[in-house]
Amino acid sequence: MNKKLSFDCIVIGGGLSGLTAALALSKIGLSVAIIDKTSLKMVKKNEGDQRTTAVSASGKKIFEALDVWDSLKEDAEPILDIVVSEKGKRGHLNFDHQTVGTEPMGHILDNIQLKNSLISSIRSQKNIQLFPFKSLNNFFPNTGAVTVDLNDGTSYEAALLVAADGRNSAGRRIAKIKDTNINYNQSSIVFTVSHEKPHKGTAYEQFTTGGPIAFLPMRGNQSSVVWSEDTEVVKSLMQLDDKDFAAAASYRLNDCLGEMAIIGQRKIFPLKLNYADTIIADRFAMVGDAAHGLHPIAGQGFNLGLRDIANLTEEISKARRLGLDIGSFETLRSYQATRRLDNFSLVAATDGLNRIFSNRNKIVRSIRSNGLDVINTIDPLKNLFMELAMGEVGSLPVLLKGKLP
Ligand SMILES: Cc1cc2nc3c(=O)[nH]c(=O)nc-3n(C[C@H](O)[C@H](O)[C@H](O)COP(=O)(O)OP(=O)(O)OC[C@H]3O[C@@H](n4cnc5c(N)ncnc54)[C@H](O)[C@@H]3O)c2cc1C
Known about the structure:
Blueprint: E1 5-12, H1 16-27, E2 32-35, E3 52-56, H2 57-65, E4 77-79, E5 81-86, E6 92-96, E7 106-110, H3 111-123, E8 128-131, E9 136-142, E10 145-150, E11 155-163, H4 170-174, E12 179-195, E13 202-207, E14 212-218, E15 222-230, H5 231-239, H6 242-252, E16 260-276, E17 280-281, E18 284-286, E19 292-293, H7 301-321, H8 329-357, H9 362-377, H10 379-389
Parallel strand pairs: 1-2, 1-11, 2-8, 5-13, 11-18
Antiparallel strand pairs: 3-7, 4-7, 5-6, 9-10, 10-11, 12-15, 12-16, 13-14, 14-15, 16-19, 17-18
Helix pairs in contact: 1-3, 1-7, 7-8
The chain binds flavin-adenine dinucleotide (FAD).
The site of flavin-adenine dinucleotide has 33 residues, from helix 1, strand 3, strand 12 and helix 7.
């Protein structure tokens, strides 16, 4: 019988979470395999994920610690202000980064560029091996190792299997972990606009009765837009030509960035929530959307995944320092304990926000717009919201402070 190739850790999924997790684990000295259905190659603009991602201040620190930030910073647009308001209502919330420090609240990164930078860093790590065009078939935990079977008949061994294989995680299904799913019957249209007036580093989130629309600042007079509406409304919006569509988007924002023009294509993302009952099993841990997929209302999905990765890396590093088994139940239980509250709170908060702001009831509408005004006048409460958005609340794992554990 052929001897199986062995790693400290096998990561299933080479999306943003899997690539970041693999890089972090390799940087603390582990041998890592990444397995993905796709090519795991760098992609050209217009070929991959057209979205941008708002990465929080603490998320940026992870990329600094992993030596990826230098290749991202030139094109990363800082978020200096966030303005939250409701269409047709006076109440609004204004978060200015200067009230909590000098650093921006986050940065807008181009997903393709982020993925390419991660792949480039991974290629320079000798202790990571890439397995493109392969998918997970099954896995079998046993004493000291987990055997991972792939669709092409090959199998590999590791001390730990990390599933970063997204919302429909095969790893989660094979581990028989229950998952709560809510279909929002909403979709997001994602696109880029150029606009007449400068955004001055401001991210706008405007709530409308159909759903939120977010304008995220990009280099120059451009913003990346995530416009969420009921799926039926999305279908009609997609029928509009670029000119009318841009005018409709600008109207949603009370024309405060002036006239807009669409750049490139509009892409649709159906929205649902998924939340796994547990993020660990025997020699198995999940990170990113495999563990929790959120409504993009607060732009926090990947940030939450980054916090999974920071905590998992820290627990594994601790276990190694103490000479313990990195895939043992004790190590994984500590990981699960560090993530439970944060993951649940954000899933509940984003789900709740969407329900409150999509509610057409008059009383709820009045309470929420008054609520925005009230929060805006209470500095400690506002600062807490800002620190949450920056991912800087509670005791942080060291990767979120810009250092390797
Ligand atoms: C419209 C929209 C806007 C968003 N904006 C933001 C934002 O501003 N800020 C933010 O923090 N988050 C944002 N998010 C959330 C963010 O995009 C996701 O949280 C993130 O992309 C999830 O990455 P992932 O790697 O966990 O999963 P995925 O991106 O789903 O990657 C999973 C990977 O696993 C691979 N795979 C799947 N199954 C298998 C298998 N069986 N075997 C091998 N490989 C497999 C896939 O090929 C894929 O490469 C947004 C989401 C949406 C929908």
